[in-house]
Design brief:
Maltose phosphorylase, domain 3; alpha+beta; eight-stranded antiparallel β-sheet; disordered N terminus; Glycosyltransferase
């Protein structure tokens, strides 16, 4: 994916799968359509789970379902039956805060071996309540008899653990695997084990309450005698690499549930709150915020948003940096955690197998067996060209938002190392631009956010050869140098400040000369290894507006190309315009619509005064969310043109939830409202605010500067937006310019 590494992304059918090759090593098989399955996902810490609507995880080729821990599937099959039949789904819902999955089921009509009806349909109700906490999955089944007669019912839970590496689940074939261990039985459960080729022992411990009537290495059965109106409860606990709780399962369930609720409330309570006049949008925002905090994992350095479920539930540099930037106005603690973690894990040596160079910022971390063995290169991988300048950009933005000079001073050596990387390693040929080219033949061919193997190409469709200088990367480098100049000035390092400011301005002039194409009316996608421009209309060009590298006179034509019909689908701006040779609305990066990309484009448009264009992007993405399960914006969707009364076309293996997609609506709110913070003046500012058509009012609560907060309402009044202070705690001023 753009952000999380897919390797050279290739979409193939199961029938086409061959043993892995360097070109198609880390593909995601198109047969595993997440849109078709519309799975229910849970996550806490290093553990996530994917279930179907019944709450089952059905094993089979191409199935992504199961319980995963640290990039390994610890439970690959979970299947509930009543008297040998699968119950019928009534409803399946995730709480608004994503804390718990609830599935309501009922029995179908059940006959005996001679075909006689022994249990009429819709008499037995089963409610499954499930959540994740601290490396374990907890479940409670409530089985109630609504019949006027007593009934005996056998509830059976089938299970299996394949201990497949996440990359195996995604489609990579392995020549050898580790060894499954014989099951170990306890009175109330069973432990399934595996010893990997990395010599690591992994185990899944299942525990049940009450003690099953029958327990095997494949299932647990409970024979229930239900009187009319009676309810029986069954508790199940699935632990990944940890011993069972010392509490009995019912108590363990409720203790863990209380802790899960408390943790979610604590983390989200530090953030601002958004309420609007549009209840559907309120639902979308609540889901975005819930997804964001579900994906956040606590590290020793602070909160860190994992990229997305199911394929990218781990640490990524680029994704977290962009997510933190999108949410900086909303919850600066996320940016603080991201900066501290990435600083602590910055590369210090040249390691070709990891594409690491001194000063480079981390791209991806994996913990699975294949990563440990080097079968995939992502154990600790640095193969992204943009994470390093984005790190410096975020540091500058965080300082401007919080005035937290203590943190910035503590990571200043890391900022200096990142700047040194830009000069010594990023600019591979000394032409003043930052290029990429992998050091490891198994690493990513393309190392920008569009990291598919075919995402950088010329107008005739031929693929560009490296080292490649991407347009948006130069924009990020400009933003990083501007940020470094401001930081150095505040740290009383005038020489460094002047040097970085001069380098930024030199890059701006050089970029305009080499990348702006008068005939296209915008910036080219990239320069290839021969310095030939890739004269292709892409969304990459809009990132030049984001950081301010674009000269003001260029902005109107760049904005016009982004919002033209061939680029703006009605749902959002396409990654590649419909006029281009490699345009494919069903592709991963060559014509699709990515919410996070559009949020960055909207921020860039707003920076140059095109706030109404930003509002059009906002409206398009909101309209798309109204057609999506749980109002949840996915990683991406297809780039087909918007049609009246029709939904967007969904991308089959898009991750959802995805951190930078979840954060996109929050970023779009800031862009449209012109929201900014001046810590020195103790002011919160709204510069020429615009409300998109679907909103007449936006209320922002707990907008903060330090320990002081303010609640603000913005209401449409004709063609203007009126800002009203509702409540103030401290001496903050609210300033509006029109």
């Amino acid at each position: 994916m753009g952000g999380p590494a897919n390797g050279e992304e290739v979409r193939v059918s199961v029938a086409e799968v061959r043993p892995a090759t360097p070109v198609a090593q880390f593909f995601i098989p198109a047969s595993a359509s997440l849109q078709e399955r519309r799975p229910r996902t849970l996550k806490h810490g290093e553990t996530f789970a994917v279930f179907d609507h019944n709450g089952d995880a059905l094993a089979g080729p191409g199935s992504p379902e199961g319980i995963y821990h640290r990039d390994t599937r610890y439970l690959s099959h979970l299947y509930l039956t009543l008297d040998g039949t699968r119950p019928m789904l009534l409803s399946s819902t995730l709480r608004d805060d994503n804390a718990i999955l609830t599935c309501d089921l009922t029995n179908i009509g059940i006959c005996d071996s001679e075909g006689r009806l022994v249990l009429e349909h819709d008499l037995i109700h089963v409610r499954r309540s499930r959540f994740l906490w601290d490396g374990a999955c907890y479940e409670r089944l409530m089985v109630r008899n609504y019949s006027t007669a007593p009934h005996k019912v056998r509830v059976e839970i089938a299970f299996a653990a394949d201990f497949a590496d996440l990359f195996e689940v995604r489609g990579t074939r392995r020549k050898r695997r580790g060894t499954l261990k014989p099951p170990v039985f306890q009175e109330d459960g069973v432990t399934l084990g595996y010893v990997g080729l990395d010599k690591r022992h992994r185990h899944t411990a299942l525990r049940f309450y009450p003690r099953p009537s029958q327990l095997t290495q494949e299932s647990a059965a409970f024979d229930l005698e239900l009187k009319p109106g009676a309810t029986s409860r069954i508790f199940m606990e699935v632990r990944c690499d940890s011993p069972p709780s010392s509490d009995p399962p019912p108590r363990a369930f409720f203790v863990a549930l209380r802790e899960a609720h408390r943790a979610l409330r604590t983390s989200s309570s530090r953030a601002a709150a958004v309420v609007t006049s549009n209840e559907i949008f309120n639902e979308a925002v609540r889901r975005s915020v819930s997804d964001l905090y579900m994906l956040i994992t606590d590290t020793p350095q602070g909160p860190y948003p994992y990229a997305g479920v199911p394929w990218f539930s781990t640490l990524f540099g680029r994704d977290a940096l962009i997510t933190a930037w999108e949410t900086l106005w909303f919850d600066p603690a996320i940016a603080r955690g991201v900066l501290r973690y990435l600083a602590a894990n910055q590369a210090t040596d040249i390691l070709p197998q990891a594409d690491a160079e001194p000063g480079k910022i981390l791209h991806e971390v994996r913990h699975g067996e294949m990563a440990e063995l080097g079968e995939v290169p992502f154990r600790r991988y640095y193969g992204s060209v943009d994470a390093t300048p984005l790190f410096v950009m975020l540091a500058g933005a965080y300082l401007a938002r919080t005035a937290d000079l203590q943190l910035i001073r503590s990571i200043w050596p890391n900022i200096e190392a990142a700047l040194k990387w830009l000069d010594e390693y990023g600019d591979r040929d000394g032409d003043g631009f930052v290029e990429y080219g992998r050091r490891n033949s198994d690493g990513l061919v393309n190392q920008g956010w569009k990291d598919s193997h075919d995402s950088v190409f010329h107008a005739d469709g031929s693929l560009a050869k490296g080292p490649i200088a991407l347009a948006e990367v130069q924009a990020y480098v400009y933003g990083a140098r501007c940020a470094a100049a401001r930081i150095a000035s505040l740290l009383d390092r005038p020489k460094v400040s002047a040097e970085q400011a001069a380098k930024a301005q030199a890059l701006r002039a050089r970029f305009d000369e080499a990348f702006f194409d008068e005939a296209l009316g915008t910036y080219v996608l990239a320069l290839d290894g021969d310095k030939r421009p890739c004269r292709v209309l892409t969304s990459n060009a809009g990132h030049a507006l984001l950081t301010g590298i674009a000269y003001p006179e260029r902005a109107p034509s760049v904005a016009a190309t982004l919002m033209a019909e061939h680029s703006f689908s009605g749902w959002g701006v396409r990654t590649v315009a419909a006029t281009e040779r490699r345009y494919n609305p069903m592709s991963y990066h060559n014509g699709s619509v990515w919410p996070h990309d559009n949020a960055l484009l909207a921020a860039g448009l707003a920076r140059y005064g095109f706030r109404r264009e930003a509002a059009r992007i906002f409206e398009g993405l909101f309209a798309a969310s109204t057609y999506i399960d749980l109002r949840r914006l996915p990683e991406l969707f297809c780039g087909f043109a918007r049609r009246v009364s029709q939904s967007p076309t969904f991308y089959p293996v898009a991750c959802t939830p995805q951190a930078w997609a979840a954060a996109a609506p929050l970023s779009l709110i800031q862009s449209c409202l012109g929201l900014d913070f001046d810590t020195a003046a103790r002011e919160i500012r709204f510069e020429r605010p615009v409300l998109p058509e679907f909103l007449d009012e936006v209320v922002l609560r707990r907008l903060s500067l330090g320990d002081e907060t303010v609640d603000v309402a913005l209401r449409r009044a004709g063609s203007e937006v009126v800002v009203t202070v509702l409540e103030r705690h401290g001496d903050l001023r609210v300033v509006t310019t029109n």
